[in-house]
Amino acid sequence: MNGGTEAVSADGADLLDVLVVGAGPVGLVTAILLAQQGRRVTVLERWPRPYPMPRAVSFDGESARILAAAGVGDFIDVFGESSRDYTWRNGEGTVLFHVDVDDVGRSGWPDSTSMYQPALEEALAARAESLPGLRILRGHEVVDLADSGDRVSLTVQGPEGRGEFTARWVIGCDGANSFVRGAVSVGVKDLGFSNDWLTCDVILHGPREFRPNNLQVCDPARPRTEVSAGPGHRRWEFMRVPGESAEAFGRTENAWKLLDLFGITPGNATLERHAVYTFQARYATEWRVGRVLLAGDAAHLMPPFAGQGMCSGFRDAANLAWKLGLVLGGRAAETLLDTYTTERSAHVQHAITMSMELGRIICQTDPKAAKDRDTIMIATRERGLGRTAREPAVQKLTGGLLHRDSEGAPIAPAGELGPQGRVVHNGRAGRFDEIIGPGFTLFTTEPVGELIDCERLRTLAQLGVRTVRLIPDGVLAADGADVTDEGGVHLDHLTRTASRALLVRPDFYVYGAADDAPGLAELVDGLVARLMAAAAT
After folding, report:
1. pLDDT at residue 394 greater than cutoff 80
2. Are 317 and 26 in contact (CB under 8 A)?
3. What is the pLDDT of residues 154-192, one digit of tens each?
4. Dihedral through CA 522, CA 528, CA 534, CA 537, nearest 10?
5. Could you tell me which of 63, 39, 534 has the C-alpha nearest to residue 288?
6. 128: which residues sit within 8 A by CB, 6+ positions away?
């Protein structure tokens, strides 16, 4: 969806709800999640066309759930495939570590999906095209930003000259070198992790089975990686080792020389792209300044070893979109947005730390240290102490919008990532999200009217909370609120948390639980109070 630059009148007649700067995957998901709530959103992208080559190559189950919430779940099998497995070997080929990817993980999707990013972006752009309140303007570079207190104006250089756009809020999803971040004078904390890697994206000329499907070679002479990059695509990566010329490292002839380590040659493959990337670890010191917010690479960068860079950006989008939607609708105070920084910054710092720790293991170039590493990892694997399934890389929420005790501590299970199973409702069967829809969800195993009074039920309805009574498979539904939990995933969650009622946020994290009617009343009252006076904790 492209268009010319337009001027916005000073009286605010063309005042938008949100301007998103940057039309990468995170910017598009953020814009879509807002537009699906009926918000008027414009995305400004400096480049005239989408970038045609992949950068990220995988996402986790939580990200798949977010993508499905953004309306592209039916296309995940088109641009992605289950990552299947992941193996580490040393330079001699000995297995150090192996995990199998669960094809139906906690979030109801594969715990890891390998994907071709240009096809993902194509699906997101098509979804954006279908939403009447959303437009994408490519070839429009933001050159100035002014926050007036109740709105933000962006000066844009477009195909037809300069113009101005004004919105109630601006979200900077404009990448590592973010103009928006610089315009609001936000600094970054650099954690001092840096390595050069040559990335080679390859299309094979014929079918070939890879076992394992994803391989990390922890060779001190040359750390290297071989992974799926989505259907029909593969990626190889090679670390620049000490003493190696940076200038020569990125040459095409060097790429083919290194690919030959895996039997990949010009005779059996096409080198779609090769580029040298310097992996970094850093995050923004502030994620909100006035009416300007940051998300994705504009807010954080991390090494790729945990596969959490783009996933963290999708979590930003999911966390921010529902909160901003409530603020725009007058159902929450602006201070609710301070919890975005509180929650997401802590998550991102955890992901960055984990990525750096994995990187230090993988990138070891000292032969003696590498041998010691191998000895420990092999012994751990042989004793059966290593993981056999790839676990989500996300910790619980501890700060932000959660049900808390009198001393301010979250009350378990508040902050957990809620699971997703398959359900049946009114004759329709599928994953919970696609059958029941987006928003807050109150899970119970008994009629909700027996647990909560009519006034609080009205309050929940005003917040868009869906009340769901779960029934086991094989039990007949008594009314329209009954939802059959086919695999028992959600019923098991209630049992495990010893809850009669469980309130889950729109981004799938548990707000809080109650084990009786007074507890549920307290839960609802606490949510309303925190939404209207949501100072970050």
Report:
1. no
2. yes
3. 999 999 999 999 999 999 999 999 999 999 999 999 999
4. 20
5. 534
6. 1, 28, 31, 32, 35, 43, 134, 136
Query: Average pLDDT for residues 5-16, to the nearest whole number?
Result: 55
In whole angstroms, what is the distance from residue 337 CA to residue 326 CA?
A: 10
- In 173-244, the DSSP E strands lie at 188-204, 215-218, 224-228, 234-239
**Contact between 190 and 282 (Cβ < 8 Å):** yes
Rounded Cα–Cα distance for residues 182 and 40 (Å): 25
150 touches 290 (CB < 8 A)? no
- Residue 117, judged by CB atoms within 10 A of its CB (0-12, 13-18, 19+), counts as buried
371 SS3 class: helix
pLDDT band at 482 (very low <50, low <70, confident <90, very high): very high
Beta bridge partners of 484: 424, 471
How would you label 304-321 residue by residue, b for 16+ Cβ within 10 Å and e otherwise? bbbbbbbbbbbbbbbbbb
C-alpha 128: how far from its chain's center? Answer: 18
| pLDDT of amino acid 474 | 87
Per-residue model confidence as pLDDT tens digits over 214-257: 999 999 999 999 999 999 999 999 999 999 999 999 999 999 99
Q: Which of 230, 254, 301, 252 is nearest to 239 (CA)?
A: 254
What's the pLDDT tens digit per position in 345-364?
999 999 999 999 999 999 99
**């783009």: which residue's tokens?**
310
Per residue in 492-535, pLDDT (tens digit) is 999 999 999 999 999 999 999 999 999 999 999 999 999 987 54
User: DSSP secondary structure string, 404-433?
Assistant: B-TTSPBPTTTTPBPP--EEEETTEEEEHH
Residues in Cβ contact with 518 at an 8 Å cutoff, skipping those fewer than 6 apart: none
Looking at the whole model, is its pTM more than 0.85?
yes
**In percent, how much of the chain has pLDDT > 70?**
95
Parallel, antiparallel, or unpaired: how do β-strands 85-90 and 95-100 relate?
Answer: antiparallel
Region for residue 345 given its phi and psi (left: phi exceeds 0; alpha: psi -120 to 50; beta: otherwise): alpha
pLDDT at residue 395, rounded to an integer: 83
* CA torsion through residues 341, 344, 346, 348, sign: negative
